[in-house]
Write a structure and sequence with these properties.
Low-confidence stretches: 341-349
Mean pLDDT: 93
Number of strands: 18
Helix content: 25-40%
Structural class: alpha+beta
CATH class of the largest domain: Alpha Beta
Shape: globular
Radius of gyration: 23 Å
Oligomer: single chain
Number of helices: 16
Largest sheet: 10 strands, mixed
């Protein structure tokens, strides 16, 4: 698949309507938007799809309670609308999730109760189940491990939950099936100009070192926290758009939050909303908000961020987590839009922002997973004007995404693959050894490794263990243990030798160290 897409880059006469730089939420959204309207589309990602911030979220498709607190009603309305659209377009990946705000002060019940009713109202016809007030007893029944001392009542509301990296895979497969070319490990190293206008890019294949000159009528910069580096290829002295903020999550055993409901803490010590959310039979606790000076492809949790999360988790749970209980931890960098009037990233805009340079580089910055579709629609609208292409209406509001399946029944244990679950089951029937788990503590089969290589452009052990499956996030130690077996399966499928296997395992073990809690 990847080789076929690369062969298209060797045609010197080929001029793409739209070339998109970046394979995260915004770039993939733009690719689906562009190709679904019928424009020739190429997406280039320097690493793997969603390897950066887009695979390191809190796994929520939500309107944003914090934005409601800030009075950003328009952003909340847009996000709630997009939440409803995505639930319809990818029901195999996005599900309803109940959240409970535990109330310990007499004023919290009425205050948050009214706020959640407004949240329901803003969602309109695309809303989920209605929020409700819970008694102290009802709250303890739904969250048996919530701190009971001083608990008055609870407020329950609903949002969406998803698997971020799996949605990224779904989007690139959707774009591919519609006719787009999408390439991972293809880094844009320069912009091509003709008469001071951008007319393409130079990209380097990270696997072979080969450079490709690619012509385009419009180039979209959708590189998340790295948008400034692409802009500076065009304008060396351009001011930075991004004020990076690091968010960290820890993953705990399900016993810390055994029910089906999540906990939402509206206001922590750093002014953020904190979540403890059931996910893939684990519990994710996050997130922090730490201003950082520079962006990196491999952000690492800071000791003080881990302490912050453990402290707040202990504050609201009867079973207090310790460092030894952390199964995995991960950090992501938010691409927040810079403001000259604040030094607190928690108050910076989460909305998306589109700019066009004098030479025609179209950049989209900011935003979040929930509004990825609207971000794609807006940025493609702008790119079409730059490219001088005929304007065609957006089709993504009603576009079923790859694997669309409204009913999970019968798809177990491959529900996240939607209607392709039957294909994986067929693989396990034909080759029973593929029905074996990759590790006793992980919910993934060997068939999923093979599927990721054959159908989802997985190129490395980390691609499989971090993003095609979520093994590294669910249990870092278990992932390290099964890495050699995964490398062997991949090597056999890709035609690689033992040297490749060893290198892959060594690199994975090194990278996975950032997900392990050091005692």
């Amino acid at each position: 698949m990847r080789d076929e897409f690369i062969s298209q880059l060797n045609d010197p006469s080929k001029v793409w309507d739209i070339v998109i730089i970046g394979g995260g939420a915004s770039g993939l959204g733009a690719a689906v938007e562009s190709i679904s309207r019928g424009y020739s589309t190429l997406l280039l990602e320097q690493l793997d799809f969603s390897q950066g911030t887009s695979s390191r979220s809190t796994k929520l498709i939500h309107g944003g309670v914090r934005y409601l607190q800030q009075g950003n009603i328009s952003l909340v309305m847009e996000a709630l609308q997009e939440r409803g659209i995505l639930l319809n377009n990818a029901p195999h990946l996005v599900h309803h999730q109940s959240f409970i705000v535990p109330n310990y002060g007499w004023w919290e019940g009425p205050f948050y109760g009214v706020g959640m009713k407004l949240y329901d109202m803003l969602a309109g016809k695309l809303g989920l189940e209605k929020s409700q007030m819970l008694s102290r007893e009802e709250t303890l029944k739904k969250i048996p491990t919530v701190e009971p001392e001083g608990l008055k009542r609870g407020v329950m509301y609903y949002d969406g939950q998803f698997d971020d990296a799996r949605l990224a895979v779904t989007l690139f497969k959707t774009a591919e099936n519609l006719g787009a070319s999408v390439l991972n490990y293809m880094k844009v190293i320069a912009l091509i100009k003709h008469e001071k206008m951008i007319c393409g890019v130079v990209a380097k294949d990270q696997e072979t070192g080969m450079d490709y000159e690619i012509k385009a009528k419009a180039v979209i910069n959708a590189t998340g926290v790295f948008v400034d580096s692409i802009i500076k290829m065009d304008l060396k002295d351009a001011e930075s758009m991004i004020a990076p903020s690091q968010g960290v999550h820890i993953v705990l055993d399900k016993s810390f939050l055994p029910g089906d409901s999540a906990i939402m803490v509206p206001h922590t010590d750093d002014g953020r909303v904190l979540f403890a959310v059931p996910w893939h039979d684990r519990v994710i606790v996050g997130t922090t908000d730490t201003m950082i000076d520079a962006v990196t492809t491999e952000p690492v949790p800071l000791p003080e961020e881990i302490e912050f999360l453990l402290y707040h988790a202990a504050k609201y749970l009867t079973k207090n987590p310790e460092k030894k209980d952390i199964l995995s931890m991960f950090a992501g960098i938010r691409p927040l839009i810079r403001s000259d009037t604040t030094h607190e990233t928690s108050s910076l805009s989460r909305d998306h922002h589109i700019t066009i340079t004098p030479s025609g580089l179209v950049t989209i910055a900011g935003g979040k997973w929930t509004t990825y579709r609207k971000m794609g629609e807006d940025v493609v609208d702008k790119a079409l004007i730059v490219a001088g292409l005929d304007l065609r209406p957006s089709r993504t509001r009603w576009l079923n995404l790859y694997g669309w399946s409204a009913n999970d029944k019968g798809n177990e244990p491959f529900q996240i693959y939607g209607n392709h679950a039957t294909d994986l089951k067929r693989m396990t029937r034909l080759q029973p050894e593929l029905d074996e788990a990759i590790h006793p503590n992980l919910p993934y089969k060997k068939a999923e490794v093979l599927w990721g290589v054959r159908h989802e452009m997985a190129r490395t052990v980390r691609d499989i263990l971090e993003r095609r499956t979520r093994s590294l996030i669910l249990d870092a130690k278990a992932s390290i243990t099964c890495a050699p077996e995964v490398a062997s399966i991949m090597a056999n499928e890709l035609g690689k030798d033992k040297t490749w296997e060893k290198k892959q395992v060594d690199e994975f073990v090194k990278d996975a160290g950032n997900y392990l809690m050091k005692e």
